[in-house]
From TrEMBL:
SUPFAM superfamilies: Acid proteases. Pfam families: Asp_protease_2. InterPro entries: Peptidase_aspartic_dom_sf, Retropepsin-like_bacterial. It comes from Aureicoccus marinus. This is Peptidase A2 domain-containing protein.
Length: 349
């Protein structure tokens, strides 16, 4: 993205407002026009300054007088590990059509939808919420019973599906989701750091249906956010198009149905910015060995940098088993443990 003739690195995050780094804000003159109280993906809030970007350029597209929040701390995990200058949010895209083509590493931004040859068979209504124009779409959740849920389309989130705890409280009364464990802790990392320590559930959803396309055996966790969300994992499975102008959502899948990997390790990780930590312990047999806040000192016998692991997240996620050196949060002796993936699905419906 180009600002005042210089190119900067931004994450295209449809679930966020525009945000610039503190460093970039100061470089551009450091003049705030107002301030706002803002909540992140973990429902944690803080006061942030608002700057005005007189002009930004994305390829051949030019946008003027764009408001942007100013990041409080450029050393946080998101800005530091991805080496970014900011987040480009939905409020700048609200007059455009944006298509995400992950296999070809392309983002297409246009105001001429017909050039994209979109198929109405893959279409759903897109709802734009608030001044930020946050994009929402409805899905079906299918187990023994069927329900519907409105999700935030959030390309800044990593996983396919994160379920709001408030929404799960309603769904748990119906035989839709299969609970595969509960734990007290946290694993999500937002703009203001790791989420608060709370009770969460790990779930198996037999079928998630989006724009008519079925995803089978979806493993997910609850989140502290008020909103459930669909994250960037969806981009691995099809072309995603958000038509902000006509309020339409398109998903063109690569397969007739998508079978998700139902295997998962018995823990979820988080970070304090310096180390990886045990965030949630799901398997009962691990709860007398591992606890929230235990520090991971080594992975596969090697020291690591947090940003290296975050950048290689998919590599470690794909491994069948991983060996960790653990420093217990309660001050006990360090120990090694190997954690292997286990299937969470009983049957494929």
């Amino acid at each position: 993205m180009e600002i005042e003739g210089e190119t900067y690195r931004f994450i295209l995050d449809t679930g966020a407002p525009n945000v610039v780094s503190k460093r970039l804000f100061e470089k551009l003159g450091g003049k705030a026009v107002s301030s706002l109280r803002v909540s992140d993906a973990n429902n944690q809030s803080s006061q942030m300054n608002v700057a005005n970007l007189s002009e930004i350029k994305l390829g051949n597209a030019l946008f003027k007088n764009i408001p942007a929040l100013v990041n409080l701390d450029d050393s946080n995990v998101v800005f530091r590990c991805f080496q970014i200058d900011g987040l480009l949010g939905s409020n700048v895209l609200s007059t455009s059509v944006v298509q995400f083509d992950l296999p070809n590493k392309k983002v297409i931004l246009t105001d001429q939808r017909k050039k994209l040859q979109l198929d109405n068979a893959n279409r759903e209504k897109l709802e734009l919420v608030g001044k930020q124009k946050s994009p929402y779409v409805w899905i079906e959740v299918i187990g023994e019973k069927t329900g519907r849920e409105r999700l935030l389309v959030d390309t800044g989130a990593a996983d396919l599906y994160d379920l709001s705890k408030a929404h799960y409280a309603t769904f748990s009364k119906l035989p839709i989701f299969q609970e595969r464990g509960t734990s007290v802790g946290g694993s999500s990392i937002g703009l203001f750091g790791a989420g608060a320590k709370e009770e969460h559930a790990r779930l198996l959803l037999p079928t998630l249906k989006l724009a008519g396309h079925p995803f089978r055996n979806v493993v997910l966790e609850t989140t502290n956010d008020d909103n459930s969300r669909i994250g960037a994992t969806i981009l691995k499975h099809g072309l995603l198009t958000l038509d902000y102008k006509k309020k339409r959502f398109y998903f063109e899948p690569f397969k007739e149905e998508t079978l998700m990997d139902d295997r998962a390790r018995g823990v979820s990780l988080t970070s304090d910015g310096k180390h990886l930590l045990i965030g949630l312990v799901w398997e009962e047999e691990l709860k007398d060995k591992l606890s929230y806040g235990d520090v991971i000192l080594q992975i596969e016998g090697e020291d690591y940098e947090v940003c290296d692991i975050i950048a290689r997240r998919e590599e470690f996620k794909a491994a069948d088993s991983v060996r960790y050196l653990i420093q217990p949060a309660d001050g006990g002796e360090n120990f090694e443990i190997e954690l292997a993936k286990r299937s969470l699905a009983q049957t494929l419906e």
